[in-house]
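dumping these here so i dont lose them again. two proteins, back to back, each one seq then C-alpha cells. dont judge the mess
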Amino acid sequence: MPTVKVTLSLKKSPHIQKASELMALGEIKKSFAVLEESGSIQQAQHCDKITQITEDYLAIASDERDKTVIVVQTKDEVEDITVRIRSRLIEGGQLGKSARITQLKAKTIKGAQCRDINNIEIGDGIKPTKDYKKRNLKKARLYTVLDKTRDRLTLVDKEGTKYTVDPIFEKTVYTQIPLQIAEGDRLFWTRRDSQLQHKKGQEFKVKWIRENTAKIEYYDGKIEQINLNTPLHLDFGWVKPNYRSRGNDEKILMFVGALDKDNFYKALSGTKYQLKFYMDNVQEFLEVVSLEQENPLADKREELAAQRRETNFKEKIIKNSVVKVYNETRDLIKLSDSSQEIVKDTDSKKEKNTIETQSNKPEKSNTNSL
C-alpha cells in the first residue's frame, strides 16, 4: 500500500504555511522574508508601536476580534494596550453597561513572608489554605483586614463577623482592587476554583450586566452567571503576556516586542490565518538569527539535550522493569509463604484429629470373666 505524505496544511493561510515550511527547514531568513513581503512585519518605536497595534486591532471586524490574540512581553505593555483598546471601544459605543467590581490580585509573597505582618496591609484580602479551628477561620474563605497591630490582625468576613488572630498561619494574601468591567469585555480567570469549575486562564466574555449579576459566555458556548458583589479572581483578556500565550491556536496573532528564534517559531506554529509582528528593530533580529545559525555550539547543545532525553527515557524504562520484577518476585514469595503456612496448618489439624481419635477409643477391660 503506498504511503501518502501531507505537504500542505489547509488550516493555515498560504503565506503562513510557506513561512512555516521554510522555518521547519531551518531557513529562518527566508521564512522571515515571506512574512515581510506579505506585510506581516511592522517596525516602529515603542509609542508608535502601541498606537499602531491599537489601530490595527480596532480595524478588525468585531466578530473576528474574539479570534485574535495580542501577545506582548511585559505587564506594562499589557496594561497600556488594554487601556487604549477599551477606551476606544467605550468611545465607539462597542462596550455596553458597566459595573464596578472588586478584583483579587495575589501578592507575590509566600511562606514566611505571608506570616510576616509587615507584608499585610489594611484592606488586603486573606484566604487560609486550610481550616484553623482555634482561630475560627475556614479554608478558602475570604477575610478582609480591618486593622492590625504589632502581632495581631483584625479580620472580617462577608457576613460582618470579626476575628482577631495572629498572622502566623498558612494563607494567600490578595490586594483588593476596584475594577470597572462592561458588557462586551474580554476577561479570564486568574485562579482555579474547583467548586465553581473555573480554570486558571479560562477566557470568557461579558454578555450582559443586571444590577449585581453578570451573564458570561465562555468560548466553548457555556453560559454562567456571576455575583458581582463578591470579590473575583479575574482580569482583562484583551492582551496576553508572552508566558500566557503558549499552546494557543489562534486565527489571528499580533505579536509585540522583542523577537527571537523560539518566539518566531511559536508564533508561526500557533497561528492560522493572519500574523503580524510589531518590532523595534528588524535588522537586529536578523543579525541575532544569523549568529544562532552560524554558531556550531547551538546544534551541539541540541544534540546533547536529545541524548540526555533519550538516556533519561531508557533509565526510566529500566527502573520500571526492575520495579515490576521486584513486585512480581515479592508476590511470589508471599504466595509461597502463604502456601507453606496452609500446609503447616493442615498438618497440624491432621495431627490434632489423630490425637483426638485415639483418645476417644474405649479402653479394653482388664477384668477377667468369672
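---- next one ----
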Amino acid sequence: AQNKGPHKCGGVLRNYSGRISTYEGPKTDCIWTILAKPGSRVFVAIPYLNLACGKEYVEVQDGLPGAGNYGKLCSGIGLTYQSSSNALSIKYSRTAGHSASSFDIYYYGDS
C-alpha cells in the first residue's frame, strides 16, 4: 500500500485537489510535482508541520523540480504557498536510517 494513494514517494499529480502524506518506505528523497491546467496556479497548505529538524525536511519549489524554493521547512503552523505558474513541486528528504515523521500537505488548483 506504500506506493498507492497519498503515501506514494513522489510522482506527477494532475488532480484538481488532493493530499500528500507521510512516506514511510525505504527511499530518502521524494519529489511530487503538482500540475494544474495551463494558465492556472497551484495552492498548497500545510496545516501543521513538526519534522525532526536536521534529519528531515520539506521543500516547496515554485515550478518543476529544481525550481526556486521557499527554503527547507521542518516545522510550522498554517503554512500556505502559491505557485507563479501552473506547476509546483514538493520535495521530502530525510537522513538514511531516520524514520519518517508524519505530515499532511494539501493542494488545489484554481480553475
